[in-house]
Amino acid sequence: MTETVGTASGRGKKGPGKAGRPAGLTVERIYTTPGVHPYDEVTWERRDVVMTNWRDGTVNFEQRGVEFPASWSVNATNIVTSKYFRGAPGSPQRESSLRQLIDRVVGVYRRAGLDNAYFATEDDAEIFGQELTWMLLHQVFSFNSPVWFNVGTSSPQQVSACFILAVDDTMESILNWYREEGLIFKGGSGAGLNLSRIRSSKELLSSGGTASGPVSFMRGADASAGTIKSGGATRRAAKMVVLDVDHPDIEEFVATKAKEEAKIRVLRDAGFDMDLGGSDITSVQYQNANNSVRVTDEFMRAVEADGEFGLRARMTGEVIEKVGAKKLFRTIAQAAWECADPGIQYDGTINDWHTCPESGRISASNPCSEYMHLDNSSCNLASLNLLKFLGDDGQFDAVRFRKAVELIITAMDISICFADFPTEPIADTTRKFRQLGIGYANLGALLMATGHAYDSEGGQALAAAITSLMTGAAYKRSAELAGVVGPYEGYARNAESHQRVMRKHAAANDDVRTFPASSAVHKLATITWKDCLATGERNGWRNAQASVLAPTGTIGLMMDCDTTGIEPDLALVKFKKLVGGGSMQIVNQTVPRALTKLGYQGEQVEAIVEYIGEHGHVIDAPGLRQEHYEVFDCAMGERSIAPMGHVRMMAAVQPFMSGAISKTVNMPEAATVEDVEKIYLEGWKLGLKALAIYRDNCKVGQPLSAGKSAKATQKAEVAAPVEARPVRRRLPKKRPSETVSFTVGGAEGYLTAGSYPDNGLGEIFVKLGKQGSTLSGVMDAFSMSISVGLQYGIPLEFYVSKFSNLRFEPAGMTDDPDVRIATSVLDYLFRRLALDHLPYEKRAQLGIFSAEERTKQVAGTDYSAGYGDVDVESLRFTVDAAPAGDEVERTPGATRAPVEVGSSTELLELRLGKAADAPLCMTCGTKMRPAGSCYLCEGCGSTSGCS
Predict the structure, then answer these.
(1) Is residue 590 pLDDT above 90, yes or no?
(2) What is the pLDDT of residue 813?
């Protein structure tokens, strides 16, 4: 794509050049055509963007008549218009077209490249600008959000999303930490820092008093972050707090958030509003930061050996206390099990891959844990959409991918020439070391489309080869830029270490096991690393860091990516907004592509997609071979990827990242503390730099799905007197009952349900199996236990949520028109009980409807009769305002999404019948979905992180 040359090629005015260096880069075309502007190659259309608050229907944002390519989704249009268009809404200065946005940004990059002698000629600069424009227009890549916010505007030209601060053991430094962090939060970014230089509460001050310790100062910083967030920011303040494992206050640090989580539970049970965003949540501390423990290799070896480990004084370095390493490790895992904090950062691995150790150690990370470099530094990010490089033949276009990386990394380095920074120390360090963070999104979709399971050797090998090629190409271009405009200022002092790390990357590339799908990519990566080493030894490198794997939250939506960062698919069925309003649920378009790649024919693909659209998973899909099930495993759902599968994928790509990987390993609610320990220990053994876990339902602060009415009910219940212990309410001698005969998978049985005279289920009897058989006895005992529970006041909906969707034999077709298929006898019984004894609004929350209700839902008719004060609008399905030729009819497996669904996470909740652990968006009220170690709102593009 590009190469360094000694003289200009005569196509235009020659770049300035410097003595002894080539005159600049000659830029080849990758996508564009000479004489044709990228804008002339796409079809444009005008759209109206109206974004409402999901909770109350109020309009959050409105701009009509915006111009976008017809290929861009409604969601991408909404997010770019509301987030990135500059100018006061309603004013003539307000941007109204994607052309204006791209031109504003690309124009600055092009001019800065010329002014700083990056290009051989003005023609090269023109081609550079056109290629950037084409790739942004076609969603091939995106810069991080601050670029779109600030570049080309009257605001400071801040381009970095990730910051690392420093704090020393002085009050002046601590107060300055509060100030610097506040300035970064005000700009919508996040920062991380290590507090290990601050004296512990077990050490003396120079005045003779005892030090407060870092945990005490964390309280002030946490309150500051919460205040700035609540003072008008559109998302939570993002921050990372790190403490070294040998700090004497490490146990207090580890316990901070676990103790606060216990406090939240007590306050919640006492009737306080402790949901995320609740009025009383601000009374608890440490909720605005991610906490991580920085562990050393020495500590991890002591854990393995069950030995002692010394905690060291901050001022002298002497051991002031010895603790059992295994016991401390268990304390860390226990806290993470209880509340998902702290995460782990592996200090030995991090600093072994450090390109600039002579300038200082790496002691902290940004809030999402992907950027790790010197204190008081920053990193600007850009991410490629991997699916854009997958050809119709199912092959990854490695050559074009390398060329794209080279062009993008050139642009990213140019941005440091004109960038502004929040503090002078950050500006100084970043200009001296020029840290960059190129990465990618849509890896999960790419693997599925190529027929690879996420947790498979073939899938991990392909991911490793692509990541190796990306970082190798980035550093190769960095070395070429060093030959044109010089290496980074700190390179001379760190040359030997930088070269050592480059050789480590190349050696790791040689160790990658290749498969047919990854061999061509790996071969080009090997060539690229060889060229990188040769050019770097001659020129040095322009950048101390080149690559990270960020969450790609908002920009992932901008690029219409199915998956973010390194993540797998969230689920096979996703939520999609439609042109003109309305929404639908649709099977991910990667699925038919994967089925075709696996050899299924057109009719088979259509049948499988329709099955997935109806059931949300591939289990028992018609014609789908069981050995192919794993290809469609997702982060959530019926077949979810095992926690260690996520760790193995991270380990496959980590040797090819300059920084680290933003990712949280989700664990099931039933996971044990020992399981957490195993994950953290394996992460160290596999060479990860950082790792965090999240166990389902470990946090109290989750949103209520029932809305305002549920909160009102909850408050009423709190106000009512509480019995000291449950009281059994027995049924009268004579009570109404109803018997239903049923068959499930060929097994026949009878269900008798007895009710209180004033309504309300009070007992059940299940006849299944021959009299005197084990099965009959078990069902009698089961019926008795359920009946007693009902009489003690356990709500029926609780039993329905627990026993529906259980899977065991007998299972299959039933003779009940309302419940056509059951995954087990218990699944059928409790669905039938729900239909007979629960009001509609409660069944709607559980996703249980009668055949008549489902028919009316599809027809979109009013079916509120008989359901009292149920809000009809909340039960209707939305109507597509798109032109004739309905998108639902044209998309196999697609159905209308109910209006109460506002995101893929909410749609998945309806499928699973349980709530997902994700916060509500602070801006629009939509339930967010995971993106790396952060959360992303599909409704408006807001994130809980820093990118």
Answers:
(1) yes
(2) 83
Phi-psi region of 760 (alpha: psi -120 to 50; beta: other; left: phi over 0): left
CA–CA dist 587, 613 (Å, integer): 6
Could you give the 3-state DSSP secondary structure of residue 97? strand
Dihedral over alpha carbons 423, 428, 431, 437 (to 10 degrees) = -50
CA–CA separation, 357 and 348 (whole Å): 12
- Which residues, 6 or more positions from 209, have their beta carbon under 8 angstroms from its beta carbon? none
Interval 662-686: pLDDT, tens: 999 989 889 999 999 999 999 999 9
Give me the half-sphere count of Cα atoms (radius 13 Å) on the Cβ side of residue 716: 6
Neighbours of 669 (CB within 10 A): 10
Q: Any residues with CB less than 8 A from the CB of 912 and at least 6 apart, and which? A: 636, 637, 805
pLDDT-derived band at 894 (thresholds 50, 70, 90) equals low
Q: What does the chain come to in residues?
A: 947
Taken in order of first residue, the domains within the chain and their CATH numbers are: 2-151+365-539 (no CATH), 166-359 (3.20.70.20), 737-893 (no CATH)
- CA angle 508-513-517, nearest 5°? 120
Question: Mutual orientation of helices 398-418 and 457-485 as an angle, nearest 10°?
Answer: 50
Catalytic amino acids?
A: 366, 368, 370
Three-class secondary structure of residue 649 per DSSP: helix
Contacting residues for 841 by C-beta, under 8 A, at least 6 apart: 867, 870
pLDDT above 70 as % of the chain: 86
Please give the average per-residue pLDDT across 434-450, as a whole number: 97
Residues 739 and 767: beta-carbon distance below 8 Å: no
Instruction: DSSP letter for 764, please.
Output: E
